[in-house]
Predict the 3D structure of the following.
Amino acid sequence: MQSDNTPDPYPGLTPLWTPEQISEHVAGLAGEIDRDYAANPPVLVGALKGAFVFLADLARQIQTPVEIEFMRLSSYDSGRYSSGYVRVAWGPARDAIEGRPVIVVEDILDTGLTTSVALRHLRRKRPSSLSVCTLLDRPERRTVDVKADYAGFTFSGHFVVGYGLDLDQQYRDLPGIYALDADE
Ligand code: IMP
Ligand code: MG
């Protein structure tokens, strides 16, 4: 809701975190990863599509040299939240992962189902270690036992969009993170 006469640039969205606040949290996560992986440069595996913005910023804030891979998970979800059925459409080649420390980079850890499927897929390719870095963590909705090793913002409630996160493919391009109004 705007308090003055300026038109609302994003009707129906309430700002939650600004690009500056996000950037501070990303820098904090990058610092933790540098501390833990300086001697052992990791492979970052971004979960598409949602993690593409976060991965790009995170990789550039991490000082340790990293390699970048992607994987695509399809969950047949439309609207809010996932349908409860997730599969790996495609993932990194085995030789990109085998014997390497791997960090899965996620936009949001919600029920945990998507991340658990990603971890199971990657574990089969024999990384030397496997951890999870998520920008957003909503632990109250967890139904699968997955924990984030690195989490930017931990929150509850609202469905959020922006900074890579979508509602029906909309809003991924917004630089900040917003709550959808009338979230029930
Ligand atoms: P999970 O499998 O329930 O943990 O859900 C993970 C996926 O659901 C994320 O990668 C998102 O694509 C989607 N998701 C869950 N919560 C939100 C949200 O608040 N905004 C946008 N997408 C979400
Ligand atoms: Mg989605």
